[in-house]
Write a structure and sequence with these properties.
Shape of chain A: globular
Radius of gyration of chain A: 23 Å
Number of domains of chain B: 2
Number of strands of chain B: 20
CATH superfamily of the largest domain in chain B: P-loop containing nucleotide triphosphate hydrolases
Order of helices and strands of chain B: HEEEHEEEHHHEHEHEEHHEEEEEEEEEE
Strand order of the largest sheet of chain A: 1-2
Distance between the termini of chain B: 19 Å
Strand order of the largest sheet of chain B: 6-7-8-3-9-10
Structural class of chain A: mainly alpha
CATH topology of chain A: MetI-like fold
CATH topology of the largest domain in chain B: Rossmann fold
Radius of gyration of chain B: 24 Å
Order of helices and strands of chain A: HEEHHHHHHHHHHH
Number of strands of chain A: 2
Oligomer: heterodimer
Distance between the termini of chain A: 28 Å
CATH superfamily of chain A: MetI-like
Number of domains of chain A: 1
CATH architecture of the largest domain in chain B: 3-Layer(aba) Sandwich
Helix content of chain A: over 70%
Largest sheet of chain A: 2 strands, antiparallel
Strand content of chain A: under 5%
Helix content of chain B: 10-25%
Number of helices of chain B: 9
Number of helices of chain A: 12
Chain lengths: ~280, ~375
């Protein structure tokens, strides 16, 4: 159908791109993770498993990893709880306003991540909008200090930032449900609530899985929200990686942690794809 | 007076009580009027077909009966119960959808058992009724299959079983055969009809195919641009069409437009005596009532000569289009094997020309 030259022209650039900017860096990281740093702060190219040993033995690393996963799970749950009803409302109830509302949901994605994170800082801070309001309304006497620089702030911010990512696949899945299935269910005596649980929700599961995966994976790797709003108790694994590649100057350990995360994430993506396939019927 | 109200003034069959009354139902989507003033009585156990072209409002009428759309005005009554105030899930009405609408995440037997599970019937009863329904539509072998793994014809049977297993008082079928190929379609027409007799459930069947309507129905309600043109048995619709639209929509016909004056009807070059009031008249004359003229002319027979424009082979019969004097073109159905004709003499009995009304122009 297409000429050989055409196929070459079309396929080679992306292959080169992926190789140079993805495979080679990962390969380099893989190598780094088996090297070490000398006391004189030089990278020693001697192959060993010390970095992985340290990763397992030093509780701070895997505890931070566990906390990061805890935060990611909470972000996932909250963004599903927000994103699903929103997607359902838009898909089934919005009628003519559907397109407009869809844009409204998407617009925050155009605003810089940093702006959104800083916005929460000004809302949650001790002189922030929320605390000022609470004190003005005599609901609290002193500023609430758990609002900012806490896992709470990180979960809140990440939920805000990643809910559109959960919303989109769920919305797409709901839009793909033929409406005559809903009618058929009503026709067979099912109330709207029964129809939702027996027809709509099962058919939207692939979207839910995709959305949950987005929220979890993106949150797990996030480092800006914990950096800006997390404080000491809201540190996530990526902050450790950043510092290991920066101030701490221990690239090999940083590479080892990165690879461990990569394995977790790829495993999750694999699992989520399997689950999505299992639940798709088209 | 509209054609529909006239044909309805006589009840369809007094021995059968009306199951569903559609009373003055109208429906508009915004400024677009889809149904106007539709009134229809559907008898218990009847096979009624709503026949109409696409855009005639037949599917909308069905969806109003099912409860998926609400009428802009008018009422639905099932016996003494006002139906149009009930949501679809409270109506004892089930639907076979045009595209079947089988639940893709459920197996064939789960699809069929859906309504019974919703109604919280005992598990043993569900199992029994589902298995009976599977038998009835010959799908037992595919009970555990997902809908995507079976053919269109099989999906159609499952959709039918899924609706019938609930023993509805009224079954609505929205062009359920339109996706099947011609052979399977004819077979399903016969099967559906005999199934309906067997279960005794009232069927309201929507189609645009006049042949299908003829084969299956006890009565046909012919819908045109949102108004009922005629409601009658297939035979009556065919032999005594109320309007020119009905005559043309159901089978081939010759529309003869003329004048009645002093007991004589004059249509182009044709004349025959008839006791009609003076004024314009319109007749529908079926091609099978137009014959090649024989040797002897019986009394009262109308004859005319003409040039054959074309001749089309239809198996046992052939249709010939004949241009007669004064630009009158007649279509005649003649037996096959009479050879090809250039000029013919045709005859018909005026008794076979059905007096009809001209259908008013509608958008």
């Amino acid at each position: 159908m297409f000429s050989r030259a055409y196929k070459t022209v079309v396929t080679v650039p992306p292959l080169v791109w992926v190789t140079v900017f993805l495979l080679l860096p990962y390969l380099l990281m893989f190598c780094y993770s088996f090297w070490s740093v000398s006391p004189e702060q030089a990278i020693v190219h001697s192959w060993n498993l010390e970095n992985y040993k340290e990763l397992i033995q030093k509780t701070v690393y895997w505890q931070t990893l566990l906390r990061s996963m805890g935060i990611a799970v909470r972000v996932m749950i909250f963004s599903l709880l927000l994103g699903y009803p929103l997607a359902y409302f838009l898909s089934f109830c919005a009628g003519k306003r559907k397109d407009l509302l869809y844009q409204v949901v998407i617009i925050p994605l155009w605003v810089s991540y940093l702006v959104r994170a800083y916005a929460w800082k000004t809302i949650l801070g001790s002189d922030g909008v929320l605390n000022t309001l609470l004190q003005y309304g005599h609901l609290t006497r002193h500023p609430l200090d758990f609002l900012l620089y806490s896992p709470f702030a990180v979960v809140l911010t990440l939920t805000h930032i990643y809910t559109p990512f959960t919303f989109l696949p769920i919305y797409a899945a709901l839009e793909h449900i033929p409406r005559n299935l809903v009618e058929a269910s009503h026709d067979l005596g099912a109330t709207p609530a029964q129809t939702f649980w027996k027809v709509v929700f099962p058919l939207s599961i692939p979207g839910v899985i995709a959305g949950a995966t987005f929220a979890f994976v993106l949150s797990l790797g996030d480092f800006l929200a914990p950096l800006l709003l997390g404080g000491p108790s809201g540190i996530m694994i990526s902050n450790i990686v950043v510092s290991l590649f920066g101030a701490a100057y221990n690239w090999p350990l940083g590479a080892a942690i990165s690879l461990a995360m990569l394995v977790i994430v790829v495993g999750l993506l694999f699992l989520s794809e399997r689950l999505e396939k299992k639940w798709s019927f088209s | 007076m509209s054609p529909a109200s006239e044909s309805q003034s006589a009840p369809p069959d007094p021995s059968r009580p009306a199951l569903l009354s559609v009373r003055n139902v109208a429906k508009a989507f915004g400024r677009n009027t889809v149904l106007r003033n539709v009134s229809l009585e559907i008898a218990e156990g009847e096979f009624l077909t709503i026949l109409g072209e696409s855009g005639s409002g037949k599917t909308t009428l069905l969806r109003i009966i099912a409860g998926f759309e609400s009428a802009t005005s008018g009422e639905l009554w099932m016996g003494a119960e006002r139906l149009d105030h009930q949501p679809p899930y409270r109506r004892r009405v089930n639907t076979v959808f045009q595209s079947y609408a089988l639940f893709p995440h459920l197996t064939v037997e789960e699809n069929i058992g859906y309504g019974l599970r919703i109604a919280r019937r005992p598990a043993a009863e569900i199992a029994q009724r589902v298995s009976d329904a599977l038998d009835k539509v010959k799908m037992s072998a595919h009970a555990k299959a997902k809908p995507s793994k079976i053919s269109g014809g099989q999906q159609q049977r499952v959709a039918l079983a899924r609706a019938l297993v609930n023993r509805p008082r009224l079954l609505l079928l929205d062009e359920p055969l339109s996706a099947l190929d011609a052979n399977l379609r004819r077979q399903m027409q016969v099967e559906l009809k005999s199934l309906q007799r067997e279960v005794g459930i009232t069927f309201v069947f929507v189609t645009h195919d006049q042949e299908e309507a003829m084969v299956m129905s006890d009565r046909i309600a012919l819908l045109r641009s949102g108004e009922l043109e005629q409601v009658a048995s297939p035979r009556e619709i065919y032999s005594r069409p109320a309007t020119s639209y009905v005559a043309q929509f159901v089978g081939h016909t010759n529309l003869l437009k003329g004048q009645a004056q002093a007991g004589i009807v004059r249509c182009a070059s044709l004349t025959w005596p008839a006791s009609l009031p003076n004024g314009p008249v319109l007749f529908s004359l079926r091609p099978e009532h137009v014959r090649l003229a024989g040797k002897d002319k019986a009394t009262g027979i109308v004859r005319t000569r003409g040039r054959v424009l074309n001749q089309a082979f239809h198996g046992a019969t052939e249709l010939i289009r004949v241009e007669c004097a004064d630009g009158l073109v007649l279509i005649a159905r003649i037996p096959s094997g009479t050879g090809s004709h250039n000029e013919v003499e045709l005859e018909f009995s005026p008794a076979d020309a059905a007096l009809i009304r001209d259908s008013p122009e509608r958008d």
